[in-house]
Design a protein that fits this description.
This protein is of the alpha/beta class. Helix content is 46%, strand content 18%. Strands 3-2-1-4-5 form a five-stranded mixed beta sheet.
Length: 142
């Protein structure tokens, strides 16, 4: 059975993407409803493994946005547990170093890296990190 690798960028402007052999990446934006995200995750067939980016409060981030960020992270990890999708947590610096795209917060760097790896896929700022996390997951598990 083919393994499916899932990458999750839990930010409000992030996404969830998955990679399967011989298929372009598929994704859903986190701006969709939690129900739609649950449907997306549950529709993924086969043996799955997910990598979710570890989130922290950032300097200068307001209390409300910090809470919203943490709430999204909690909801997404809860969905993974409820759907019995095994997952690991990874800090941005770790996966970006491994994928050779240390961004320092510049989304154009991760977007360019994702586009170079998947030239036939439309890469946008919302899906770039999730696709790279899925690829990082794939490389770590092979």
């Amino acid at each position: 059975m083919n393994k499916t690798y899932i990458g999750i960028d839990p930010g409000k402007s992030g996404a969830i993407a998955y990679l399967r052999p011989d298929m372009p990446p598929e994704y859903i934006k986190n701006s969709e409803t939690l129900y739609d995200i649950a449907e997306f995750l549950s529709s993924i067939e086969g043996d799955k493994m997910a990598m979710i980016e570890k989130v922290n409060a950032m300097p200068g981030q307001g209390v409300t946005s910090t809470f919203t960020f943490g709430e999204s992270y909690g909801q997404l990890t809860g969905l993974l547990v409820a759907l019995r999708i095994p997952f690991e947590v990874c800090r941005p610096a770790v996966w970006q170093k491994a994928m050779q795209c240390r961004s320092g917060g510049n989304k154009n760097i991760t977007k360019a890296k994702a586009q170079s790896l998947f030239p036939d896929t439309k890469i946008i700022h919302a899906n770039a990190d999730a696709i790279l996390l899925a690829e990082y997951c794939r490389r770590m598990k092979l």
